[in-house]
Amino acid sequence: MSERRRTPVSTPQPPDADLEAEVNRVADALYALKPDDFAAARDAEVRSAREAGQPALAREIGKLRKPSQSAWLVNLLWRDQQAVMEQLFELAQELTQAQADAAGSVLRELTAQRRQLETALMRRAVELGAAAGVRVSDSVAREAQETLSAALALPEVAAEVRSGHLVKPSSYAGFGAVAPAAAAPAGSQRAPIDLDAARARRASDEGERSRDDTTREPAEEDARRAAAEAEARRAAEEEARRAELERRLGQARREVQRATTNLADAAQAAEDAHARAGDLRQQLDTLRRQLARVEAEASSADEAAAAADQQRAQADAALAQAKAELEDAEAAIDN
Length: 335
Hints:
mainly alpha, single chain, about 0% strand
């Protein structure tokens, strides 16, 4: 009796929803690691999924990309300060509305609060990096700051930040309420922020303004509106000027870096050229000494050749004389 052929059993693949959840779980763990540890940990997860008979999961994990240093810092900040960052996103929306309403005083207050909140978040990001054993450089802090500012203006960047799986930094080239504030220095302390108290003050101020509006004359109301619009324009122009100055500063930094690299290359080329010139001068001196020696030997050879020619001429004359004497002797014998 023949044995029944057994069908190999493989681990069933999770449905799409479960697959996505599992990939997110793995990604959450990977993007919490330092960038230098990311690749090895991801490859280990890929191997584990394959050994478990889950090729789809292994394929999706393999697509995860190593984050830059600044992206990793933003991911850390989101995990640690999620509620505060959501407040910052909400504040950015209020800034946009204040600009649209030309509410100058509200715009100034919201802008100051945004900068205070953003600076405190960047201080915390530097602290988180230090706690993980990473010294955050000024350039990395600046990239993280620019990414945070871009998230306030661009929904797609905000979605990446909220995922906690940010891979690379972003920047915002527009103007207005989301112009970046200065990045916090590494050794500074966190500034306390009472956002609820600030909102209560805004609500109280708006209530006072609402009550005052009912008693103002039309001319006074028009003047107030015109002043508010002028103030809003001034604030927007100031933000635009700041953004332009920061753009020019970034461009200047890149030019300095490029010039520094070119200078180093030129210095190396000059050093190589000087070394080559020294070698050639040494070879030329050697050849000159050899030429002088050959010229002296040629002069001596010329003198020896002249002496030899003189001796040959004397020998020719002596031979001719000897032949003549021989002929005379022979003639005398014959006679």
